[in-house]
Amino acid sequence: MKQGNSRSTIFHADLDAFYVEVERQYDHSLLGKPVIVGGMGPRGVVATASYEAREFGVHSAQPTTIARKLCPQGYFLPGNHSLYSEVSKKFMHILRRYSPTVLSVSIDEAYLDMSGTKEIYGPPIVAAETIRQKIRDSIGLPVSIGIGPNKL
User: Fold this and answer.
1) Helices 18-26, 81-98: crossing angle, 10 deg rounding
2) Which is catalytic among the residues 21, 109, 119, 129?
3) Which of 4, 24, 40, 148 is 20 to 30 Å from the Cα of 66, by its Cα?
């Protein structure tokens, strides 16, 4: 992946509250509710929390026992990693339609080298919005896309 060149255009695509949003696709009753996905045991940790749960102070990497105290009304889910993996594959497939150079950094985020694609997709802000909408339409998930000259 090219970096540092003044003509480089790098996108960082990050699915928002990934595990929660995937769970909500399959259980619409979770929409608008504080949802916490992560380990359920006494030593479990929060993998992700919905924005509603974050309002109570719940956050990723927090012990689940603390999250339960902060948000006892939350919906605590153990997660479905095979489902998340399938959705992630679809996400990465969509990204690769827009750039041959995609660096997956986790199940729900990646960098795309969009250098030299202005003639194809328009200015970076337009290309980012096109990708955001394609992801929303194809897999129903919200995504944030940052644009810069390098990965930093």
Assistant:
1) 110
2) 109
3) 24
> CATH classification of 19-77, choosing from 3.40.50.2300, 2.40.30.110, 3.40.1170.60, 3.40.50.2020?
3.40.1170.60
The structural architecture, per CATH, of the domain 10-16+81-148 is 2-Layer Sandwich (3.30)
Residues of the chain with CATH 3.30.70.270: 10-16+81-148
β-pair partners for 147:
11
- Predicted TM-score (pTM) of the model is 0.89
Dump the DSSP string for 12-74.
EEEETTHHHHHHHHH-GGGTTS-EEEE--STT-BEEEE-HHHHTTT--TT-BHHHHHHH-TTS
Does the CA dihedral 138-139-144-147 come out positive or negative?
negative
pLDDT digits (tens, 9 = 90+) for 38-53: 999 889 999 999 999 9
- Residue 98 CA to residue 110 CA, distance in Å, equals 13
Within 10 angstroms of residue 136's Cβ, the number of other Cβ atoms is 12
